[in-house]
Design a protein that fits this description.
heterotrimer, A mainly beta, B alpha+beta, C alpha/beta, A: mainly beta, five-stranded mixed β-sheet, C: alpha/beta, five-stranded parallel β-sheet, 5 helices, 5 strands, 39% helix, 21% strand
């Protein structure tokens, strides 16, 4: 996995020929259901290290931790998506990503499953899967291995 | 604007900002030249180049309006540098206005606001109005060149050449052989030596070099000095100077490429020298070098510095461990080995401190960065509101952490705007009061221990205390009773309440109704404090005190409810043991007596609403202070002192008050760093209700 | 293919690099950047470069002088040179062509513009 501490070379993909073709998604479990985010946006997957609780922070913020010297704010995705809260388990993982402002965010998930490839045509639009104001967080619905996978928009979730 | 990735956007903003800043500085330099009536083609050219680069940058990133403005601006500046347009006050005004529009465009793009800032059409029209007059550029063929020489000059360089020739300067070819390994340094040296001697039109690579590691260049120098003088200053083992002969030296076949050693060169080939008009020559030779064309500095991404600081922080931890191992070895009997290890650890410590200071130094930038921008803003605002303002700046070379400087420019600008808008009176009123018509704003900065103090003082009308009180009461910030009981300083501090100092004038040129409350919050976030002093009719002085660096501080580690926190030592005056019996409630607030004075207390476990299952018997109170305010913080245990690297908390945690960051304590444990001033603020402003709250949340740790 | 990009704007260099590296079919593309004429002169002896893309209007050593140097250098006999200039600098452009530039591009240009210009140069490998 690429290291979070190294800056990728400056590339301007959007000015050049648009990136078409299938995108890769990382599928993970949250409260028994399958969700996914764009693999390209995930820098690293780590086992949850010691988390330091931040008093007075929003409830969905589990705390902060250090990954090789980098300060990461860990968000409980269950709480963010208003799912049933639960304890961490052996399979819990933190997905490391970076926000637009350069902040390192970790998404706490129950279990990481696999990576799938989906063409944009294979992603169905489905507004009503999550509650009203949370619908901004969904890009759409995908299917793989007979499972319905809710694809989340990382950018909107980490802003 | 096209939608590039974020990193790319940052590159664009970073470079665009730097270019506009350079442009702004260049314009200030031109302003001075215009007022003093001197000429500096280099400065004009620099300005042209900055706009040229901006135009290219805007074109690539699809910043349309920026591109269009840059295009017109470039045309105008091109005419200026080619001598087709005179440098007038009007032209300068338009140029300054263009810079202001640039900043607005950048701010809008940064905020991703869809609408365009106002003023673009206006500036385009104004630039258009400066059409170029077709002044004939006389062609002189007074010198003998190879045709090929002229063919490699750009139009601009050719213009400079003609200009120099018209002024009657002589031309010389200074051939220098450079070693590639040291070329940067040697080049700077030659440039500096050549500057007072005349104008270097261009540098021509000769294409002949003795080896792969050397390079030969011809400097084409226009100068009024005699070749002997040039040789005296520029001469050296790798330097050969020859004069480019004038065409009307008919008789002798002048030795063109012979080096100076052939002594017959100078007098005979320049019979025209004697009749040179010295005054004109001096005017163009005056080293009006107000801008450096070659920057010696490197643009560094501050994240790289943070990464370096991390590494140093981790090394600090290693150093600590080394020390402990040394002690253990000694205590286990192996004194010699232990002593050796400890000696090593001490050396390590010294080098580490050097490294640390070195990196900290790199993060430090002079405040003049912010002050320069203010100069331009003051000029603009003054003209907009019709007040003449004189800005006096001292202490611009005081240095502060780059991250702080970035966040400082907005608050400072608001303070200055306030001073101009509300502080400085109109010219008429000032005259009536016997004050000079031009208002003065003095900006001063200096270092005081671990802090940097910034003062903004104006000689305006001072704060109208009565209207402040009235406004505060109207906005229900205080009651009439409270208003009566306020001390003078407390009245002045009302200005920091929300809503008190927003401009409510319709003609807000910046469109932002930001008040001093926002300024205060921003300063607090940087770990600083802001104070205001004022005397009616005399003036107002705002003092901002900031920590020198956010990066590494000495901290006190404390334990509260089983968790470890860090407190920067700068805000700690002392720590003592504490027992509950020492606390006395006064007016519902817990206090204790310390050497005769009352010290308000705050039990941090309750403050953060921790679940206190087993309160420890012996505790400690840490006396924290911020300015004149003191607060005793009750903690469970003191864990010692440590140098820590404070890392900023992410944006998603910015709304959490009470913490100024986090630090790693070794073995990857993270401890939060307390924001002492925010805690003091909150407690003393009467948030004791928190302590009395019943509801507490149980969170999993 | 070895390319030297000479341009004082860092972002413009990065942009040209991105376009070069996006060209199909050239896995061995090596792009070297120089922030000005002097740096280019320093890098040229380490060549040869198959292509030099340079801004014309640079301080001290301008693109024309650089082109001249390249043309006179035995190491760079087969080097193609693409000059970049502004719309208004017609004279500079003419001089460039007269000195033997292979193509020129007017700034600001799009990725398509740069790609077209590159395609129009006959790029044979050394």
């Amino acid at each position: 996995m690429r290291e979070l501490t190294h800056r990728p070379d400056v590339k301007m993909p959007s000015l050049l020929a648009g990136v078409r073709g299938p995108k890769e998604f990382l599928v993970f479990m949250l409260a028994g259901a399958a969700y996914a985010v764009e693999l390209a946006r995930i820098r690293e997957i780590v086992s949850p290290p010691l988390l330091t609780d931040v008093p007075r922070a929003a409830r969905e913020i589990l705390g902060v931790c250090s990954v090789r010297g980098l300060l990461v704010t860990v968000i409980d995705l269950r709480r963010r998506l208003r799912l049933v809260a639960a304890e961490a388990t052996r399979t819990s993982r933190i997905l490391l990503t970076e926000t637009q402002s350069g902040e390192a965010i970790g998404l706490f998930v129950d279990e990481v499953k696999y990576v799938i490839r989906l063409e944009s045509s294979e992603i169905e639009v489905a507004q009503a899967v999550l509650g009203g104001d949370l619908s901004d967080h969904i890009t759409g619905i995908g299917r793989a291995e007979n499972q319905v996978i809710v694809i989340l928009d990382l950018m909107s979730m980490t802003t | 604007m096209a939608d590039p990735t974020d990193k790319v956007r940052e590159e664009f903003f970073s470079e665009a900002q730097e270019l506009v800043e350079n442009l702004s500085r260049g314009l200030l330099a031109l302003d001075e030249l215009q007022s003093s009536g001197t000429d500096d083609p280099a400065a004009v050219n620099e300005t042209f180049r900055a706009v040229h680069t901006l135009k290219g940058l805007a074109g690539i990133f699809g910043a349309k309006s920026m591109g269009t403005i840059s295009h017109r601006l470039e045309d105008v500046l091109d005419c200026l540098r080619l001598g087709r347009l005179p440098l007038t006050r009007d032209l300068l005004d338009v140029l300054f206005q263009a810079v202001e529009v640039y900043w607005q465009i950048l701010a809008h793009e940064k905020d991703r606001s869809q609408k365009e800032p106002p003023g673009i059409e206006t500036i385009l029209q104004r630039l258009q109005a400066f059409g170029s007059s077709d002044a004939p550029v006389a062609l002189t063929d007074e010198f003998e060149f190879e045709i090929s020489l002229l063919s490699v000059l750009t139009e601009y360089e050719e213009h400079r050449l003609r200009s120099c020739v018209e002024q009657g300067l002589n031309l010389f070819r200074v051939r220098v052989a450079f070693e590639l390994a040291t070329i940067d340094k040697d080049l700077e040296e030659i440039k500096n030596k050549a500057k007072p001697l005349g104008e270097v039109i261009t540098y021509l690579p000769t294409g002949e070099s003795s080896s792969l590691d050397s390079l030969e260049l011809d400097l084409l120098l226009a100068s009024n000095f005699a070749i002997a003088d040039l040789a005296g200053t520029l001469g050296g083992p790798n330097v050969a100077i020859s004069a480019v002969p004038r065409r009307h030296v008919a008789a002798k076949p002048s030795p063109r490429d012979e080096p100076f050693e052939a002594s017959m060169v100078h007098e005979t080939s320049h019979p025209g020298v004697a009749s040179l008009p010295v005054q004109a020559h001096e005017a163009s030779m005056a080293p009006a070098a107000v801008m450096r064309s070659v920057s010696q500095s490197v643009r560094v991404d501050i994240r790289k510095l943070d990464a370096l600081m991390n590494a140093v922080g981790e090394l600090s931890i290693v150093k600590g461990v080394l020390g402990r191992i040394g002690e253990r070895i000694r205590s286990e009997g192996n004194r010699q080995l232990g002593a050796e290890l400890q000696r090593l650890q001490r050396t390590f410590d010294r080098r580490l401190s050097e490294l640390q200071s070195g990196i900290l130094e790199v993060r430090m930038v002079p405040l003049s960065q912010v002050f320069d921008r203010l100069t331009r803003v003051v000029r603009q605002i003054g003209r907009d509101v019709g007040k003449e303002i004189q800005l006096v700046i001292t202490g611009g070379d005081t240095e502060i952490d780059k991250l702080i400087v970035e966040e400082l420019s907005d608050p400072l600008m608001h303070i200055v705007r306030n001073a101009i808008d509300h502080g400085i009176e109109s010219a008429d009123k000032r005259r009536g009061l016997g004050k000079p018509e031009a208002g003065t704003i003095a900006l001063n900065a200096f270092q005081k221990g671990n802090h940097v103090v910034l003062e903004v003082e104006d000689d305006g009308g001072g704060v109208n205390e009565q209207s402040l009180i009235d406004r505060a009461v109207t906005l229900s910030q205080i009651s009439l009773d409270e208003a009566r009981g306020l001390t003078r300083q407390e009245v002045l501090n009302l200005v920091f309440l929300p809503g008190l100092s927003t401009r409510d004038r319709a003609g807000d040129y910046s469109g932002r109704g930001v008040g001093m409350d926002v300024v205060k919050t921003n300063i607090s976030k940087l770990g600083g404090v802001i104070d205001l002093q004022s005397e009616r009719h005399i003036g107002t002085k705002i003092t901002v005190t900031l920590p020198v660096t956010l990066a590494i501080v000495s901290a006190l580690l404390i334990r509260i409810a089983g968790r470890t926190f860090a407190m920067p030592l700068t805000s700690v005056s002392e720590a003592l043991s504490f027992e509950d019996s020492m606390a006395q409630p006064i007016d519902g607030r817990e206090t204790m007596t310390l050497r005769g004075a009352t010290l308000p207390l705050c039990r941090l476990d309750r403050f953060f609403q921790f679940d206190v299952t087993k309160p420890s018997r012996r505790r400690f109170v840490v006396v924290a202070n911020m300015g004149v305010r003191r607060l005793g913080l009750v903690v469970d245990d003191l864990l010692g002192q440590q140098d820590i690297v404070i890392k900023a908390l992410g944006r998603s945690l910015k709304s959490v008050t009470g913490f100024s960051g986090a630090t790693e304590l070794g073995d990857q444990r993270v401890a939060l760093v307390l924001d002492v001033s925010a805690i003091i603020e909150e407690v003393l402003a009467g948030s004791e209700s928190r302590e009395a709250r019943e509801v507490r949340e149980v969170r999993h740790a | 293919m070895r390319v030297l990009v000479v341009e004082d704007s860092e972002a413009t260099r990065a942009f040209v690099r991105a376009v070069l590296e996006s060209l199909p079919g050239d896995e061995d593309m090596e792009v070297v950047e120089a922030s000005g004429g002097f740096e280019a002169l320093r890098l040229l002896p380490r060549g040869p470069y198959d292509l030099v893309i340079s801004d014309i209007n640079m301080p001290d050593i301008n693109g024309l002088e650089l082109l001249n140097f390249i043309r006179k250098s035995p190491l760079h006999q087969k080097t193609q040179v693409l000059l970049m200039s502004t719309q208004a600098a017609a004279k500079d452009r003419d001089r460039g062509m007269a000195l033997g530039a292979n193509a020129y591009l007017t700034k600001p240009f799009s990725p398509e513009g740069l790609r077209d210009a590159l395609r129009s140069l006959t790029l044979g490998t050394a």
